[in-house]
Amino acid sequence: MPYAKDNSSKHASVDVYLIPLDGFNESVVNQIANIMSEELGINVKASLSAPLDKSIYNQERKQYIESSLNEPIFRVIPDLKNKTDQTAYIGLARSSDKASLMYSPLNGPADLEQIGQKY
C-alpha cells in the first residue's frame, strides 16, 4: 500500500501531508512540499495521488463532499485514520495573482520570469 513518497518518512514525525487528488501532478506536489518545508521549517511530505470517485462530487456546488474524502485518503496514508480530529482539507484554486503559488495561466517564458524560480 502506498505511503508517503519518501519511505524513510514512515516513522518520522510529519507535520503536514500534501495529498494530490484526482490526477493532480505528484511531482508538482512534491516540489510544493519541499518549498513549504524549507520556508516554514516544518516537516511537509507529499503522498502518492488519491483517485476520487465522481460520485462524491457535488455538481451544484462544484466541489467534492468533504466528509467523503477520508476513504480515498486513508487508502494512501492509512495512519491518518487515527488523526481525523487533526485533519483539514484545503482545496487550492487557480489564482490570477502572479505572487501566488497557484498562479494560472502560464502563457509563456515572460510569465515564468515574473513569478520567479521557486514557483
How does this model look, in words?
- The chain is 24% helix and 8% strand.
- It is α+β, with helices and mostly antiparallel strands and 119 residues long.
- It has a domain at 7-88.
- The strands form two sheets. Strands 1-2 form a two-stranded parallel ribbon. Strands 3-4 form a two-stranded antiparallel sheet.
- The longest helix is centred in the first third of the chain and has 15 residues, at 26-40.
- It has helices at residues 26-40, 70-76, 109-115, and strands spanning 16-18, 44-46, 57-58, 63-64.
- Mean pLDDT is 77; it is low at 1-11.
- It starts with 15 loop residues before the first strand and ends with a helix.
- It has three helices and four strands, in the order E-H-E-E-E-H-H.
Mean pLDDT: 77
User: What is the number of E strands?
Assistant: 4
Work out the helix count.
3
The residue ranges in which pLDDT falls below 50 over 5 or more consecutive positions are: 1-11
Beta-strand residue fraction: 5-15%
Give the N-terminus to C-terminus distance in angstroms.
31 Å
Q: Name the shape in a single word.
A: globular
Largest sheet data? 2 strands, parallel
Element-level helix/strand string = EHEEEHH
What's this, in brief?
With 119 residues, the chain is an alpha+beta fold. 24% of the residues lie in helices and 8% in strands.
Topology diagram in text:
Elements: E1 16-18, H1 26-40, E2 44-46, E3 57-58, E4 63-64, H2 70-76, H3 109-115
Parallel strand pairs: 1-2
Antiparallel strand pairs: 3-4
